[in-house]
Amino acid sequence: MTRDFDQFPDDENGNVLWQMAEDGDDLTEAHEIEFSIAFQTEEQAQKCALYLLKEEQKISLFEDEEADTVEWIITIYVYMEPEYSDIVDLEEWFTKIATQYGGEYDGWGCMAYVYEDEDWENEVKS
User: Fold this and answer.
1) For the chain, what percentages of helix, strand and coil (3-state, to nearest 5) are there?
2) Is 5 inside a domain boundary?
3) Which N-terminal residues, if any, form the signal peptide (predicted)?
4) What's the whole-number mean pLDDT along residues 68-86?
5) Beta bridge partners of 60
6) Residue 66: what pLDDT?
């Protein structure tokens, strides 16, 4: 498969989406994409979480005790087709919100949905 740089631009997001496509992930199917915002204090994270809930976002909030310093992480779950321009738009929005509440946007990720034909046939037969 040849990379279409209009669909998969040569930047971090384009590279991740291209790798997903190369790995056989069907990018025309909706995925639950997780966007993260990190905060130094629980109070900042709670204020941001409340704002996101009022914006009807599905979120989780937890304390990351494994980080070098204590951090509070908000994960925003967006069910969507992983399309480059939509991801960029959401990153810009979450970056603005993070800044507004004293946090830092920390990226996105999602589970890959890759089925080998043989695996699919076995799963269907089960």
Assistant:
1) 40, 25, 35
2) no
3) none
4) 94
5) 75
6) 83
CATH of the domain at 34: 3.30.70.970
For residue 76, what are the domain limits?
26-125
Mean pLDDT lowest among 10-14, 44-48, 76-80, 109-113: 109-113
The H-assigned helical ranges of 10-116 are 12-22, 42-54, 84-100
Strands of the sheet containing 31-39, edge to edge, are: 58-64, 71-80, 31-39, 104-110
* pTM of the shown model: 0.86
Question: What's the alpha-carbon Rg for the chain, to the nearest Å?
Answer: 17
Which position has the higher pLDDT, 70 or 55?
Answer: 55
Within 10 A of 18 (CB to CB), how many other CB atoms are there? 20
Are 106 and 95 within 8 A, CB to CB? no
Determine which helix (DSSP H) or strand (DSSP E) holds 122, and give its type and residue range: helix 117-125
In the chain, how many domains are there?
A: 1
Q: How far apart are CA 58 and CA 50, in angstroms?
A: 11
CB-CB neighbours of 33 under 10 Å: 19
